[in-house]
Design goal:
The complex is a heterodimer.
Chain A: H1 2-21, H2 28-62, E1 67-77, E2 80-88, H3 90-113, H4 120-139, H5 143-161, H6 168-199, H7 204-210, E3 218-221, E4 224-227, H8 228-243, H9 252-255, H10 261-270, H11 275-282, H12 284-287, H13 291-312, H14 318-338, H15 342-369, H16 387-401, H17 407-421, H18 425-453, H19 461-466, H20 472-496, H21 501-505, H22 517-521, H23 526-549, H24 553-560, H25 562-569, H26 574-605, H27 607-624, H28 629-649
Antiparallel strand pairs in A: 1-2, 3-4
Chain B: H1 6-23, H2 28-55, E1 65-73, E2 78-84, H3 89-105, H4 114-133, H5 137-146, H6 148-158, H7 163-192, H8 197-202, H9 207-224, H10 233-240, H11 243-253, H12 255-268, H13 270-296, H14 301-322, H15 325-356, H16 372-385, H17 392-407, H18 409-434, H19 451-469, H20 472-502
Helix pairs in contact in B: 1-2, 1-4, 2-3, 2-4, 3-4, 3-11, 3-15, 3-19, 4-5, 4-6, 6-7, 7-9, 7-10, 9-12, 9-13, 10-14, 11-15, 12-14, 12-15, 12-20, 13-14, 13-18, 14-15, 14-17, 14-18, 15-16, 15-17, 15-19, 15-20, 16-18, 17-18, 17-19
The chains are: A mainly alpha, B mainly alpha.
């Protein structure tokens, strides 16, 4: 059952891939037929996969039958034994549901969205391939297989971001995404090696069983002695930061918006970017034994939450606003993990997966309606033209802001309460950053809604004339996701973080008895419970004030605080900094090592130098042959003198 | 089966084929056609035969198998002595696989002196197989050096504009190493009184002598690998060589160095190996980072891939000298997968070179519009080259880095930066050639792969995924021999340490 759920998308991807290579000739009907076929194959495969995931979820999460399906041997060398196995516990089962449901909705949505694209089979193939890698990632039973899925989703993301390969910007964004992720993966690999060095295995179950005995071990690495588990966790966490676009390694995510919008919904909100959170939760038995690592996770998470939220307030591209919002929400998930409230983090991961996918697909619907315009400054007044989309985006935003009874209310609040209840410095930091970010979240969400849907239209007439509601095939997935965004928080609360939590999660997440933040969160004071929603309303009202009632105010404020504004607007100058620190020096070094290092130094002294010297020497020797008799006579006399001298001196 | 002289057949069937081609007479076109056919069939037979070698190989023993022994100069204890163990057998298969692919890849590209070209390739195959299976150090040396003759000719006769310069550079570099190695071989012969490699493998050379012997072998193998800073012959040789020449150069010839370290330097000079490990690590890490950066700046496709080869072989030398199971198995595995991947990448360059006659990256762009199948195949091997999990490139790199991390975490971290850099230069190359709009006039009529070209790539694609998804087929062959090698090195080092301690 689980194998079918995982491998069906791969099969679908291969079939669609083959269809992409069938020459259709000039016949448009033929082409269309192939396009349809690839869409049906992949959509049906994904729906079956989703249905199976629900069965697996029922079996594993609700009935408690943890599964581990061994497929075959992978890498086997010395004590390093890695197999292909599918491990399903509650944590995986939850991820299976999120991944397959969101992915199948995106597949269906694509039928409408990519209608005019000439490369439909290729696109569907990439989408299914991505889903396969993501499923491999969440079902991995060891670190190396996780890395397989990890790099695989990176590849699929590269392919999808660069799907419109005629655009130079899409190509750059694709490469940037792959390379920045590789920087994270570099640390991930070192983390795997460290774990292997400590535990002599890379299999999750064996590692987790051995953690308590190794809790205080130290390890010698990079020329120093470190607490073994801490260094392993920190390295792995850097990997998670890359994939989940956390502060420092986030630069690829906004650029990734070059891809088709629903790709962003799938990869850059619901699934791939959450892999880092999943990884930390999966490795909770490891992270629990390192307070330093948990503190780092908390601080990075809290900082990213506020950092990305500030940028989201200033962006004008509708997709970029949502992208930074994703970045910020991932920060919440991380600091939840950092205060040992892993289940709260995963709860938010799930609800966020639904409402953020909804927002992205809604944005896609807007962009579709606006003939591919993404700049919110050229939108406005769309509510009356695309009512269904408007309502759906509104629901998604309510869920994002965390207004009762939408999903985000439940999941975000429990995270903030847990951060408060941790009563640590890092927890308090994350709590206040989270509250501030919640305010900004509400503000930028309603800024987006007002700029896009309210007021007067700022687009030109030709675009406006084409504005149309999306077809049903695009709206139905939105409605499914909206149902999730509306109901999942209420339904999931008791299981994920409420009374039934310990039964529900089983052994898939470990929290030490000393880490009581999640337990204590339920007893947080009233003001902690209501503050997030309070600041949410505050943010919404501020957005109404600035953009609806006094639309001249924003410009005035920007003018007043221009240096701050431009700092934030330019994304805190991270790209410029990295270009200065890494990109330019690398290019400079490459060129110079080639021309100077290889050319002048190595070849100059080596082969070219030797041949030049040999040539030079022979020329000089040739010059001795002057042809004048007295030159030779002189040389002979000189020789005789030397010989006699040697003889006389008896050397 | 054990009496069946399969290794001799592998060595001499190509020579017989070459002889057949030599006697072909008649009209020009017919000669060309027959020469190609004979060469292809001969190499296919050899490949089929080598599969028997794989099938009948006993993975439970570290001893040499399929051994053949004929006295040659009994007075001097020199014999025609062949055999394979877990370390060498897969290299034989790599060779026999790549030769038919090379011949198929040269089918239309080579139109001048076809007969001589095919003879050169078959002779080359003989020499390469002989090198890997020789169990007599004199026989080994003969094959090792003789490989260069057909290689010189292939570059010098069928090469590009600056072929003389490239051949001369190759000559200067390899000459230096070979002369020193010959002296070392003679010294070993006089010290041990035999040229028999299995005997030499268990002979304990005096510690001071090991140092000099190690350095002499190092001079030869380092050039072959090639290690930094003696790598500059490689980009030039690749650029000037015809496509199939590059394939063999990258696919098999570079492995001579890595194989040599494993067969000679490690087991025969274990004490010197311990002394020089830091030197190898340093040079290898420099190679990985330095050549990756240089690759990024290249404007010529072949040069870029040549530099990436140097970086990948840097991983191999690191893995070899970690003296861990993972490191050494990873090194061998990396050599095999690099043999497939770099061969495929040079073939990929060859495909467009045959059409446009340029290797300049700026001459291309947007090929995906006209060549979708080509783009897909290029994508597969680009990803294998950057070591994406699921492809053969990953397994080798992972094992090498695991091994390196065990002995020195800083070393592993520095080497692992190569993983980031390789992604940068390969993706950047791919983007410039394949993606973007197709605007250049000379590309408008470019054709996608034909059936022959697809046939060339098909086995390589299957192999690279096989190696990535189920590497056990290949790794299991290595286990016993590699463990045996490590035991040998470690016991020798321990014995020496005990001796010093006892004094």
């Amino acid at each position: 059952m689980i194998a079918t759920a995982v491998f069906l998308p791969l099969l679908a991807s291969l079939i669609a891939g083959i269809l992409a290579f069938i020459p259709a000739g000039k016949d448009k009907i033929n082409r269309d037929r192939l396009d349809r076929l690839s869409q049906y194959v992949t959509c049906v495969a994904l729906l079956i996969s989703a249905a199976f995931s629900f069965l697996v979820f029922d079996d594993v999460a609700l009935s408690g039958n943890v599964q581990n399906l061994y497929l075959f041997n992978w890498i086997d060398s010395g004590t390093l034994n890695v197999s292909w196995s599918l491990k399903v516990d509650t944590l995986t089962a939850v991820m299976l549901i999120v991944v397959t449901v969101v992915s199948s909705m995106v597949h269906i949505y694509s039928i409408g969205y990519m209608n005019h694209d000439p490369k439909v089979p290729r696109f569907m193939s990439y989408l299914s391939l991505f889903t396969f890698f993501m499923l491999m990632l969440v079902t991995a039973d060891n670190l190396v297989q996780m890395f397989f899925g990890w790099e695989g989703v990176g590849l699929a993301s590269y392919l999808l971001i660069g799907f419109w390969y005629d655009k130079p910007s899409a190509n750059s964004a694709a490469i940037k995404a792959f390379v920045v992720n590789r920087v994270g993966d570099f640390a991930f690999m070192l983390g795997i090696f460290t774990v292997y060095l400590i535990f002599d295995t890379v299999s999750f179950d064996e590692i987790f069983a051995a953690v308590p005995q190794k809790a205080n071990d130290t390890i010698q690495l990079f020329g120093g002695d470190f607490h073994a588990i801490t260094i392993a966790c920190l390295l792995l966490f850097i990997g998670a930061m890359g994939k989940s676009a956390q502060l420092g390694l986030h630069t690829w995510l906004p650029d990734a918006m070059e891809g088709p919008t629903h790709v962003s919904a799938l990869i850059h909100s619901a699934t791939m970017v959450t892999a880092g959170v999943f990884m930390v939760a999966r490795l909770s038995p490891l992270f629990e034994y390192s307070d330093i690592a948990l503190t780092v996770v908390t601080i990075i998470g809290g900082s990213t939450a506020i950092f990305a939220a500030t940028i989201a307030c200033t962006q004008n591209d509708i997709k970029r606003v949502i992208a930074y919002s994703t970045c910020s929400q991932l920060g919440y998930m991380f600091f939840a993990c950092g205060v040992s409230a892993y289940s709260a983090g995963i709860f938010h991961l799930m609800t966020h997966g639904f409402f953020k996918a909804l927002l992205f697909l809604g944005a896609g619907s807007v962009i579709h309606a606006m003939s591919d315009e993404q700049d919110m400054r050229k939108m406005g007044g769309l509510a009356k033209h695309i009512k269904v989309t408007y309502v759906l985006v509104f629901i998604g935003s309510l869920a994002l802001v965390g207004i009762w009874p939408f999903a985000g209310f439940y999941s975000k609040d429990i995270i903030l309460e847990a951060a408060w209840a941790a009563h640590t410095n890092a927890g308090n930091y994350a709590f206040w950053m989270g509250i501030s970010a919640a305010f900004l979240t509400a503000f930028y969400s309603w800024r987006l809604i007002i700029l896009t849907f309210h007021g007067n239209s700022r687009s030109d007439e030709t675009v406006l004339a084409h504005v149309h509601e999306s077809p049903k095939v695009m709206l139905i997935p939105l409605i499914v996701l909206a149902a999730g965004a509306g109901l999942l928080g209420y339904i999931g609360y008791t299981y994920f973080v409420g009374q039934d939590a310990s039964l529900f999660w089983g052994n898939s997440i470990l929290v030490l008895d000393t880490h009581t933040a999640l337990e204590a969160a339920h007893h947080a004071p009233i003001w902690v419970k209501y503050l997030p929603m309070g600041v949410g309303f505050g943010g919404i009202i501020l957005a109404y004030v600035l953009y609806m009632w006094c639309p001249r105010l924003p410009a005035l404020i920007v003018a007043k605080i221009y240096p701050v504004y431009s700092f934030i607007y330019n994304k805190w100058y991270f790209d410029e900094l990295y270009n200065l620190l890494f990109v330019n020096p690398v290019l400079y070094l490459g060129r110079n090592l080639w021309k100077t290092g290889d050319g002048s130094v190595i070849d100059g002294i080596g082969p070219d130098g030797i041949s030049a010297a040999a040539l030079n020497l022979t020329k000089r020797i040739a010059q001795l042959q002057t042809g004048y008799l007295y030159h030779y006579a002189f040389a002979m006399i000189g020789g005789i003198i030397i010989l006699i001298s040697i003889y006389m001196l008896g050397v | 089966m054990s009496n069946y002289p399969i290794l001799s057949l592998l060595i001499f069937i190509p020579l017989i084929g070459a002889l057949f081609i030599f006697v072909i007479r008649g009209e020009d076109e017919i000669v060309k056609r027959n020469a190609r056919q004979v060469a292809l069939w001969t190499s296919c037979v050899v490949f089929a035969l080598s599969l028997l070698l794989w099938k009948n190989f006993d993975i439970t023993t570290a001893d040499f198998q399929f051994v053949e022994h004929q006295d040659w100069m009994p007075k001097f204890n020199i014999a025609y002595h062949l055999g394979v163990d877990g370390i060498s057998v897969l290299f034989v298969l790599l060779t026999t696989l790549l030769i038919p692919i090379c011949i198929l890849a040269s089918w239309e590209a080579i139109q001048e002196r076809v007969k001589e070209y095919m003879i050169a390739f078959l002779v080359l195959e003989t020499m390469m197989i002989g090198m890997f299976v020789a169990l007599d150090i004199i026989v080994f040396y003969i094959f090792f050096e003789a490989v260069l003759l057909p290689m010189f000719l292939i570059i010098g006769v069928w090469g590009g504009k600056r072929r003389v310069y490239a051949a001369f550079k190759l000559f200067l570099y390899t000459l230096l190493g070979s002369v020193l190695m010959l002296v070392a071989i003679l010294a070993m012969y006089f010290e041990a009184g035999t040229a028999n490699i299995p005997v030499l493998l268990t002979h304990d050379f005096p510690a001071s002598m090991q140092t000099w012997l190690w350095l002499a072998f190092f001079a030869s193998f380092a050039v072959k690998v090639p290690m930094w800073p003696v790598h500059t012959w490689l980009p030039d040789a690749h650029v000037e060589a015809p496509t199939a020449g590059s394939v063999i150069l990258a696919g098999v010839l570079l492995k001579f160095g890595g194989y040599g370290f494993l067969r000679f330097s490690l087991p025969m000079f274990p004490l010197a190996t311990a002394d020089f490990t830091i030197l190898i690590y340093t040079l290898s890490v420099v190679a990985v980072i330095y050549t990756s950066l240089v690759a990024l700046a290249q404007e010529d496709m072949k040069k870029l891939i040549a530099y990436s080869s140097v970086a990948h072989m840097g991983f191999v030398t690191i893995g070899t000298f970690t003296l861990t199971v993972q490191g050494i198995e990873g090194a061998i595995y990396q050599m095999l997968s690099h043999g497939i991947v770099s061969a495929a990448l040079f073939l990929i360059v060859g495909v467009v070179y045959d059409r446009i006659h340029s290797r300049e990256i700026t001459q291309y762009g947007g090929l995906v519009h006209k060549m979708p199948a080509y783009s897909l195949i290029f994508m597969v091997f680009m990803l294998a080259s950057v070591g994406l999990p699921g492809t053969g490139g990953f397994v080798g790199e992972l094992l090498i880095l695991v091994g390196a991390f065990k002995v020195n975490s800083i070393l592993a971290a520095l080497a692992a930066t190569g993983v980031i850099l390789s992604a940068v230069y390969m993706l950047y190359l791919y983007r410039r050639i394949i993606f973007g709009k197709l605007t250049k006039d000379h590309l408008l009529k470019i054709k996608d792969l034909n059936t022959r070209e697809k046939m060339v790539f098909a086995p390589l694609i299957i192999l690279i995924f096989w190696m990535g998804i189920y590497p056990s087929s290949f790794l299991e062959i290595l286990h016993v021999s590699v463990n045996n090698l490590i035991d040998r090195v470690e016991s020798a080092q321990a014995a020496s340490a005990a001796l010093i301690a006892g004094r």
